[in-house]
Amino acid sequence: MNAPQPMTLKKPPAANTVDRAAGGVNRARWLRNALPGISLVVLLATIFIMQPRAMSYMGMNLMLNLAVPIALATIAQMLIITVNDLDLSLGSFISFVACVAATLLNDHPLLGCLVLLGCIGVYALLGALIHSRRLPAIVVTLGMSFIWVGGAVLLLPAPGGSAPQWLQALVKIKTPVLPFAIVVCVVLAVAVHLFLMRSRFGVVLRGAGGNPLAMAKAGWSLLRIKVTLYALAGGFGVLSGLFLVGLTTSADANMALRYTLLSIAGVILGGGEFTGGRVSPIGAVLGALTLVLAGSLLSFIRISPDWQIGAQGAILILVLALRTAVNRLEVRPV
Amino acid sequence: MTVTQAALVDLKGVGKRFGAVRALNDVDLTFRPGECLGLIGHNGAGKSTLMHILAGTLSADSGTVLMGGADVRNGYSVQVARQHGIRCVFQELSLCPNLTVAENTRLTCPGLRDFGWRRKAGALIVATLDSIFPDHRISPGEVVADLPIAQRQMVEIARAFTCVDEHLALVILDEPTSSLDARVAGQLLHHVRRYVESGGCVVLISHILGEMLATCDRIAVMSDGCVVEVRGASAFTHASLVECMGTVSKPQDQDRVFVSRRDGQPPVVEQLPARQQNGQAVAAWPGEIVGLAGLAGQGQSQLLVQLLRERIASGKRVAMVAGDRQTDGVFSLWSIAENISISSLAALRHGLLIDPQAEQAMAAKWQQRMNIRTPDMNNPILSLSGGNQQKALFARALASDSELILMDDPMRGVDVGTKREVYAIIKEEAARGRTFIWYSTELEELNHCDHIYVFRNGQAVADLPRNELSEAQILRSSFQEEVA
Amino acid sequence: MNLPIALNRIRSKPWLWSFLAALLVWLATLGFTGGEGAAALTSSALSFSAFFVIVGVGQMFVITTGPGNIDLSIPANIALSAAVGMKLMDSQNSLIALGLAGVLGIGVLVGCANYGLIRLLRIPPIIATLSASFLLQSMAIAYGRSVRIAPPELFYQFSTGRWLGIPYLALAVALFTVLAGYLLTRTRYGRWTLAIGQNMRAAELAGVRVERVRWATYVLSAVFASVCGVLLAGFSGGASLSMGEEYLLASIAVVVIGGTSVAGGFSNVPGLWGAALFLYLLVSMLNTFGASAGVRLILTGVIIIAVIAAVSGRKTLRSL
Fold first, then answer.
1. Per-residue b/e over C110-134, b at no fewer than 16 CB within 10 Å?
2. Which end of chain C is more exposed for a tag (fewer CB within 10 A), N or C?
3. Could you tell me which chain A residue has the CA closest to the CA of C113?
4. Beta strands B282-284 and B269-271, pairing class
5. CA of C123: which chain A residue's CA is closest?
6. Confidence of residue C146 (pLDDT cuts 50, 70, 90)
7. Which residue in chain A is spatially nearest to B143 when comparing CA positions?
8. Are residues A150 and C127, on separate chains, in Cβ contact within 8 Å?
């Protein structure tokens, strides 16, 4: 490892100092970006060594089935984190959507669709409210979590209901070669990546997280940006709830509460940061998969299910520690 | 220089106030195409305010802003400025650190919208970078946060010169070379000349006199919110520029006989600035008032904070008077009394708890001592005027039992009457043996100091006892005479 | 000149509102029942509110230290402390002291772990306490898996007993809140916490030992959550894994409704009682009216958002 050298001011730096320093930066950045992928590969390799039978269509399908709703939830959370906010109501929102799907959408499809569209509208309004009154997103979404759970309990006082047949059929599609769950995750990661990281709209959305003041000075409306991101997050939350209820076929008002924390953890595992608009859709999906697979691994190495959540915590801490180490390697330009 | 050409922007009698402070006073200035106009002056002379008004980020209170013969002062904004082709590179970076160079270009070029915009934006910015800074080694896919500060500055400058379907008439460069090395700075200035010769207009602000004299066609000298002198650059020399910037009146405060306290005892403080290369430390002896001079932002505040942290960490007593009240000083939700007592809580304890009576007594004592104008010290601190808030911050530091008081340009935006009162108290406290280290951007305040260090680029470059102090001496040391 | 002073007068007693709201809800409930069951309602309100208040105090100190500071490990900590406390006490009166000591020890350790993660990994408190809570939750599951252990008789008596209809617990917590109030307003630690919450940089420049205060704050919050956990186990006749769940949202809700600023630097202790009573009484009022669980939850959420939207106007974010 070449020791990165700080540059001295007002002195033309020797060419090779620049190269070495830039090399340090690039390597650190590469490492930081690759970290989510590396953790997932290590995890998968361990699973396959422990349990070679998992390396099959069926095995993968079994392990990753529940990964899709979590990946969708993680993407939703990531969109909120892009503008330096946090959604603490995501889990209860997804539960609510699942309950709507298992009741209204099944019995009165049109009404169900309208309610789900309304949910996205509520998210857009939240974005507007948080921006225009400068409210702390954490507290507002905390309040929203009560409202979503309340709505879910009203719809479905006891676990039950039934997901529409078409939805159940949709999530159980058998795709050739790769299991459906993997196909969906890949499509999701690539599509959101193209939109948020490559399109000209995505640039504006991320810019608002990176330097809101400069964005406002350059003439962009922060209100519109925030409303867009919140509405999109609501949209992905709806998808997550639909997918989840399609898999479980029936719903429960508390079924997805833990998604709030899982989605935050997934974003962070995937290399996202809480501030500064630094997010990565591909990383977020990888992070969600890592969290899901960590559970499978532990059951393969016969660690009691008691420690599954703990292991997720430990992995989170480990990855964050690794990232801190990588960041220290990086040359902080003076 | 063609005198006959119509002016791009004509400022007539422009004024701007911030509360009681007159930042700009009746400024007349003309910006012409095909000309590089230099703007120079000491801290607080009004350069930045004037440029913010031109760029539309601040609006003028009075006067006219003529563009193409029409007064546009009312309703003038950043958008209007951009429509007239005015772009600005301010010292604070306005790039989004999480985006790439090409993406940042897209944010200010609404014209980049079609498919393949990323490649186009990259090509555009690289082309501009190539033309300004050959061999810049910046690739458009690089994330800004990963670039060293100098390269970020280069991108920021290049972005101001890049445009799609828009016209560009005037570029403001505010200290553009402060984070560039000499070679790159030379490239930029060369580009400025080329751009000006092709008919553009550039306003250049720099504290490097050599740069200004070599690059500008005309130089306007500002002092105390007024333009005091506008001449062709060739009519100026280093010496005459420095002379123009100085205030005309001679300081009359020479009543104190200078007695050096630097004998025998060891100093209270001996601190090396973080970027000092020649080992020159800033030292202070008991009872001494040590001044830190130089242009704003040359490492004086950093030295004070560094000193404060080190002393707190090693358990030594120290107190600080902040200059930027809003970000560094005032606890806005608290009363005046609570704001004063925060640094002396240990002394106010009676048993385990803070004694409210002792706290009130302390507040009353300092209200009287500092003459804080309020009916009740339990009123919120924000009910006070700026000057009185500053007095409360002085009271906080002086009420503590600390023998060393650091002052971070504490008189910013304070009226003259308050200043006099505070100067007297500082002298009184120093006479009792307290040591003061005082960073000031106002030249006349340095007359109150026993010893002065002038800062430039994070280093103490001059070390003057009071009897050798002169304004010219400080200005000479503050402004780099040649490109390093 | 007069406006800020008048504002300050009202602002110095923001807890009045939460008590007023609690009183209104109490009257409405009794009006509906015709005054029947007033004593029982009051007594159970005091009992349940006491638990909210204990964790609320810890969360309040954390939130006071400024935006972004929040302790998400409270529910897991409650579950773990309850399990450990019950196991150490082993249903024997003679082991109560040991159990309490063990629980306090857990609180201190959890607090140090939270702060350590924040400091060493340089991560926002929310994610640090979140990852810590995952670990704690697993520990609680693994440790508390064995049969449910009943609390010692004496401990059970204390947690559920009453004096003139007032629960012992409520009396103890009332005393505890008085102490917490003194801690906040009359000690150096409290003043320093408030200073950090208003302006961390100014606090550091005024000589506040910022990192020490933050450490102490996270330890305090964890210790209070642990104490709440073991008391809750005593109250409900044993530890259970899910007993902490509602305390995450409740601890934050109590702080916000009680008049503490989420932006930090402005807090008050009495408001916690008002808010806790209000939340409990609101739920029982809706119960009395025959409203379903769903309606109760929705109203709680609406009230939290309304409160935060109403108070946010008073302190605008520093622009720039």
1. bbebbbebbeebebbbbbbbbbbbb
2. C
3. A317
4. antiparallel
5. A320
6. low
7. A29
8. no
Tell me which residue range forms the domain holding C109. 18-23+39-311
The pLDDT tens digits along chain B (484 residues) read 444 567 888 898 999 887 666 788 889 999 999 999 999 887 667 888 888 888 888 888 888 888 877 888 888 888 888 888 898 887 667 889 899 999 999 888 877 777 788 888 999 999 999 999 988 889 998 888 888 888 888 999 999 998 877 788 899 998 888 778 778 888 999 999 999 999 889 999 887 788 888 899 999 998 878 888 888 888 888 888 877 776 544 444 555 566 676 777 788 888 888 888 888 888 898 888 999 988 777 888 889 999 999 998 888 889 999 888 877 889 988 999 999 999 999 888 888 899 999 999 999 999 998 888 888 899 888 888 778 888 999 999 999 999 999 998 888 767 777 788 889 999 999 998 899 999 987 777 888 888 899 988 888 888 888 888 777 788 888 876 544 4
Q: Does C314 touch chain B (CB under 8 A)?
A: no
Phi/psi region, residue B287 (left: phi>0; alpha: psi -120 to 50; beta: rest), is left
CATH class, A54-316 region: mainly alpha
Look at residue C280 and tell me if it is in a domain.
yes
Contact criterion met (CB below 8 Å) for A252 and A159: yes
Distance to chain B for A133, nearest Cα, Å: 20
CA-CA distance, B285 to B404, in Å (whole number)? 10
Where exactly are the structural domains of chain A? Answer: 54-316
Question: What CA–CA distance (Å, rounded) separates B91 from B212?
Answer: 17
What are the backbone dihedrals phi and psi of residue A286, each rounded to the nearest 5 degrees, phi first? -60, -40
Pairing of strands B349-350, B353-354: antiparallel
A24 Cβ contact list (under 8 Å, min separation 6): A1, A2, A4, A329, A330, A331
Kindly list the residues of chain B whose beta carbon comes within 8 Å of any beta carbon in chain C.
305, 308-309, 312, 318-320, 322, 326-335, 338, 342-343, 345-346, 349, 352-354, 356, 379-380, 382-383, 396, 400
Tokens, residue C1: 């000149």
Give per-residue pLDDT as tens, A267-302. Answer: 988 888 888 888 999 999 999 998 888 877 877 777
Please give the pLDDT value at position B409: 86
Mutate to test the interface with C, among A316, A322, A327 (most CBs of C within 10 A): A316
Q: Is C303 part of a structural domain of the chain?
A: yes
Which pair of tokens denotes residue B280? Answer: 């020159």
Structural domain contains residue C138: yes
Give chain C positions within 8 Å (CB) of A143: 253, 300-305, 308
Q: Which residue has the tokens 């409650």?
A: C78
pTM, two decimal places:
0.81
**Kind and range of the H or E element at B453?**
strand B451-456
- Put simply, the answer to whether B379 touches C4 (Cβ < 8 Å) is yes
Amino acid present at A130: I
Residue written as token pair 């506040």: C208
User: What is the CATH classification number for the domain harbouring C141?
Assistant: 1.10.3470
* Nearest to B465, CA basis, from B256, B251, B242, B259: B259
The tokens of B107 are what?
Answer: 């944010």
Long-range contacts at B188-192 (CB < 8 A, ≥ 24 apart): B188/B132, B188/B133, B188/B157, B189/B214, B189/B215, B191/B131, B191/B132, B191/B161, B192/B36
Report A:18-57 residues touching C (Cβ under 8 A).
none
Of B98, B150, B275, the CB nearest to A209: B98
If one counts every other C-beta atom within 10 angstroms of the C-beta of residue A169, the result is 11
Is C116 among the domain residues?
yes
Chain A contacts of B79, Cβ < 8 Å?
Answer: 219
Q: Which residues of C touch B333 (CB under 8 A)?
A: 194, 198, 261, 265-266, 315
Total domains, chain C? 1
